[in-house]
Amino acid sequence: MADATPSRVRAVFRYPKFSGSQYRSHTDTPWPQPLHAAYNWVLRLVRDSLELIEEAFAADRNLLPYLGRFRLQKTIYDANYGLEGGTNIDYGSEWPILNPQPFKAFEFRGVQQQMILLIRTLFDPEELWAKYGLRIERLGIPQPPDELAIEIKYITDYLYKVDSRYFSWALADRDLVNEAWLRHLDFIKTIRFVVSGAPPKMDEFILRLEEFNRMLQFLTPRQMMDCWDRQIFELVAKDVVKVADRGKQLEEAATHEAKYCIDEPARANYDDLSKLANFTFAIDSAEPHVDRRKVFRLDDMSFDTPYYIDKNSTLARLFDYPTKHQSRLVLVEWITLTGLETLDETKTTWYVLHAVKPEKLLLPATIGFFHDESSPRTVGLVFQLPPHIRGNLPTKPAFGRPGEPGGRVVRSPKTIAAERMPTTLRQLILQREPKGVALDVRFKIAKQLVDALHLMHTARFTHRNIRSSNILFFPAPSIVTDNNEPDPWTLDYTNPLLFGFHDAPLEITLTPPSDQPPPAYTQPEGLKPILKKPKGQQQPPPRDVVIDCYTHPERRLHVRLTQVDSRHNPPPSYRRQYDLWSVGCVLLELGLWETLENVCGREIAARAPLVGDYIKRGVTEEEVWADAETVRRAAKGLDVITGTAYAEITRICLEVKPVLGDIVEFERRIAAALAQIGA
């Protein structure tokens, strides 16, 4: 096991207390330390003030509907500027692409002024009461509101007038400012906010906080904002796990904001927050239970040859769904049971994937579970397909079951399968678009994949089988043929779906090339039947092999040991970093537009074990590390094709050493860096 504290990590610091070098002007000149001190004081004042107001909302039962909305805005602020507890790693010169860009002059000053304006609002008794229905009371010491306002007026006015171009303050002024801050921090420990306003005023106050957060986001550098936007999802998911009631409040608040928000990007973000909270709840309460009404059997479906995708999955026609005499096209993934434990795990997977979740996860929704008495050791997860694929299937209604007199008559599957069949990323690379698709399209697919992985791990869900053969694209919904069917030649690259919830390995048939180039001499036509090919020029026979390089090498070694003796080597826990390795392999394939078995002179294909050998003995440790080194060496060829940034991110994903700190934060940085790349 590699050292848990790699030398590539230079330092650890805490948000939001950045060092002076983090804030630089256009000329890359460090900001003066007094301004940083004042900035950190402002951050602390805003945080403490919001916590006091949260206590006031929580103390009044009539304001519980507003408490969730307030906490949602406070969570957004915490994700951006309010956190002090978590660690954020500086990856130094080793991986500089993961470090957000520093603030510029106007951004830093703008953020500071917005915070000071909020503090002035919160501690102006007259405005606070007139606009928002909030009062300030001093604990145990009656004091007129005017005197309370004087306590804060001097320091906020002074800071608001300070110009960020001033690179030094007089020592006397600095001491006065620090003394005033300390006095005010002690002061707010002796007060409380009391809510006395009507609900409309509470709406106004929450809108003021929402406006405050939007201004901060507008003034924050883009890469840093992309990173912090993803951190909002992490905080919501943590609240769901730690405090269920608080998580439920955030989910309901996000649903409310999504319903009434008029800004489309903001509405979409609130909707995703709500759905992620729901998905996290489903994972936290997952159980091996399937409603009997959602258990399908053989006579409920039609499995025809044109629907076949591969040995692990197929399309199928589901009869009498969602209502009588209607039918839907679904996708079924087959899972072979090895015991009751596997059956429970499969049912739990169904339960989780059945929950409402953000589309950014790229995870399909399950609508049922296939289990038939004729084959009790084979079950299937029944997935819902995109609306333009699953519906509008022509059916002639009749009575009875299929195959019985008077049974239903449906259109032949051959006439609809071709127009609606999905294409895997692997098929796209090898067969459909061997010359490659546009680079910007590949970048968008990569960004969606990394974003999906970050959200999965944020919700504590691991996929465990990410590879190009499990990433599916369907025909685009906007283009149809003359018979009102999707155009099979135009794929929707904007909405890939991640399948592959079985544990079957990737089995392919390889036809190795001849060892020697063809001879220059051409035999006369009449001699061809009787002359044999020179030794070494015989075409090797096809081989059925297993390509397992999408699995992290550490995981492959654990699986090999488990196959040797499962009694002394129980299945190890699955680490989320293993999924990141798999994504790195797919990023490599997207960049090179080559499948793994074809990279680096087909080294992986030459080492790939036969299907029978893989099942019997697995792979050796030397083969595992040789494959990993081949994959990582292939990433060196990305720079000239995709550019240095994409290549660097791919190499980071293929890092074998354990990731220092929280893997979710690491993936957040990767996703934010990848979002800046364009063709």
Automatic annotation (TrEMBL):
SUPFAM superfamilies: Protein kinase-like (PK-like)
Coiled-coil stretches noted in the UniProt entry, renumbered to this chain: none
Designated name of the protein: Protein kinase domain-containing protein
Gene3D superfamilies in the cross-refs: Transferase(Phosphotransferase) domain 1
InterPro entries, per database record: Kinase-like_dom_sf
Record region (Disordered): 510-543
PANTHER family: HELO DOMAIN-CONTAINING PROTEIN-RELATED (PTHR37542), PRION-INHIBITION AND PROPAGATION HELO DOMAIN-CONTAINING PROTEIN (PTHR37542:SF3)
Signal peptide annotation: none
Source organism per UniProt: Parachaetomium inaequale
